[in-house]
Design a protein that fits this description.
Two copies of one chain form a homodimer.
Chain A: E1 3-8, H1 16-31, E2 35-40, H2 46-57, H3 63-87, E3 92-95, E4 102-104, E5 113-116, H4 119-126, E6 130-134, E7 137-139, E8 145-147, H5 152-164, E9 168-173, E10 194-196, H6 197-205, H7 213-222, E11 226-230, E12 238-241, E13 254-258, E14 261-270, H8 275-285, E15 293-297, E16 302-310, H9 314-328, E17 332-336, E18 339-345, H10 355-365, E19 372-376, E20 379-385, H11 389-399
Parallel strand pairs in A: 1-2, 1-9, 2-6, 3-6, 9-11, 10-12
Antiparallel strand pairs in A: 4-5, 7-8, 11-12, 13-18, 14-16, 14-17, 15-16, 18-20, 19-20
Helix pairs in contact in A: 1-3, 2-3, 5-7, 6-7, 8-9, 10-11
Amino acid sequence: MGLIVQKFGGSSVANPECIRRVAGRIMDMKRKGHAVVVVVSAMGDTTDDLIRLAHRITNAPSDREMDMLMSTGEQVSGALLTMALHAMGADAVSLTGPQAGIFTDAMHRKAKILGINPKRISRHLRDGHVVIVAGFQGQTPSKDIATLGRGGSDTTAVAIAAALKADRCQIFTDVAGVYSADPRIVKRARKLDEIAYDEMLELASLGAKVLMSRSVEYAKKYGVELEVLSSFSHAPGTLVKEEVKNMEDVVVRGVSADKEETKVTLSGVPDKPGIAARLFGRLAGAGVNVDMIVQNTSAHGLADISFTVPAEDVVKTRQVIRAAGEAVGVKDITLDDDIAKISVVGVGMRGHSGVAFQMFKALAALGINIEMISTSEIKVSVLIKKSLADRAVIALHKAFGLDRRRRSPGRR
Amino acid sequence: MGLIVQKFGGSSVANPECIRRVAGRIMDMKRKGHAVVVVVSAMGDTTDDLIRLAHRITNAPSDREMDMLMSTGEQVSGALLTMALHAMGADAVSLTGPQAGIFTDAMHRKAKILGINPKRISRHLRDGHVVIVAGFQGQTPSKDIATLGRGGSDTTAVAIAAALKADRCQIFTDVAGVYSADPRIVKRARKLDEIAYDEMLELASLGAKVLMSRSVEYAKKYGVELEVLSSFSHAPGTLVKEEVKNMEDVVVRGVSADKEETKVTLSGVPDKPGIAARLFGRLAGAGVNVDMIVQNTSAHGLADISFTVPAEDVVKTRQVIRAAGEAVGVKDITLDDDIAKISVVGVGMRGHSGVAFQMFKALAALGINIEMISTSEIKVSVLIKKSLADRAVIALHKAFGLDRRRRSPGRR
């Protein structure tokens, strides 16, 4: 008997049939004697449909009103899932984010959870109810509805699990778990049984879409054990948890590719103290997430600075850099979106040298040129041409011994 | 400079084009210097679509979850209308029913407004905002969302107008106002410039669909001047207001037909004191709205009792009457839905005798048989065969001098 928080994404509740299937899975858990809190996303493409509807009204909808609009998606799926549970004989109740006691800051469309008052959820649990909570949303200090931004429902689930001290937080998705590489690219990628928070964090920020960084950070901070698993099968998924000793036996846990970045190069930047601080300060002020940064000093006291930003921040970056660049005297600005960032990640790297060398060697063998390099304690990332990304990932996956063993001919 | 509450129904906000048109009308009012609060219904068929979606999950959805589901409709239209106002340069903000301070009882799907705390609406008005409120919904004492049932958005508008002491409450619909009879049946029906609350109440309960009784009752109780007008034209509509002296110059204000009732006849009811009280007590207990009642005492101490109920209450009525009828010893129960109730209404009747006689005479001239009669101070209703309803309405409209004058040949 424990307390389980389950989160079902949009594709898991895309239509009434899916919703009934999800209700069935919740009932399985309930029958095992667990108390269950469920966080739901909006059905299928509902959020995108609502965004499209808003853009038929105006191309610059206010963030506050977008939140009023979009938050209805999770309210609908929550109510329907609750009805499905009732039809199966369970006591259940659906709550909006505000009703569930989820309090956020006032940054509409990308609000952060400030705290959770789990009183109402706890009361319904004591009454023996399955509690369904609309994901992705909460209430601001001025009692407005705010949404949490991409991957927000995962964060809702983790935050509720932390507030309730749940025994586990299960994130149901349309994949079987976390893989050693994207299985659409690497045929012999393996599903991982477990992964450390830090590895998951690196992979999430490196383009693995299965969990958003924010929810993993939250889970790590509060020690919430996460399980990523498929809502379409009953196989166990991947456990995301505190690093344990034997995790270091594996040097590289996974290989990832991020094709959604753009490289910005500033040439002829005066090589004086404070220039970089000024440039990147302005970018940070505009909310741009700068990723890799490289600076070379060239002759005549002028430097070249290159950095990468997410594709969605390119417009903002251009504006900031044009203005700031003029002020500090940058000669030329070029943007290149024909790039991919390839990374290898593993906590085992800490005890092993030579991972970067092994990586460069494997890429050199394919004749792939490396444009930028960035490392952390548990990952090495390189920037290469986008068209070479898939080949690079396949080769690195093999080079680091991650390929799943070929199955014997008689089996599939 | 005044304070106006405007309510737009589902057909007025059915799609983005309609929503922009509504925003334009609100801007007109705003430009005249008025403060404006707007109550919106869900877009077009949204509510029906949501009900259908729920029935794909279960055929007995709980009322609480239906309210969670359906209340999203008005939240969506409110957010979109607010975006349209922003695009036209107005300051505007949308509020859910609970955010707007609308408090209801806990009778989900047919909740009653218990009170309004207009603090938040007033604050936004002081800031110069147009305030858009999701109609049809409020918050129960246990902080759940409840909907008000049919015509609920009208009631929301009237209740807000009362709480804010607004100068006027405009109800925009897809018709030009209140007519002397249904213009689809009576070609020469006239749009009324004004009508007394009591007349409107009788007409509403007699089948005129333009305003629900509950909102008119509320308006009467708090002296809110209502205007019913078309969202598709700029012509003045019909004012619903306190009765004034010259209203009595018109004996009959309108003629209506209600084809949605069923006649129930109980034969051989023991003619003893308390029997009727027992029968109708049970019906009231089951929430059945009994309308006309007639009782004839026949021979041998047995009576026949006939009454009418709304079509939607027939199933419940049958259950109650079968059980109660057995207990008191009713011989036979018959149901007849081939009936229509035809009514003439006017506060001027009070000072005039002979309205009923004139009505019966006009129907007799058409050879129409009257099955039941019911009168109040300001109306006379008769029950006739459904197939004769339209002919009866047309004849009565003419007999009471309500026909619009034929226009001169050159005009349309």
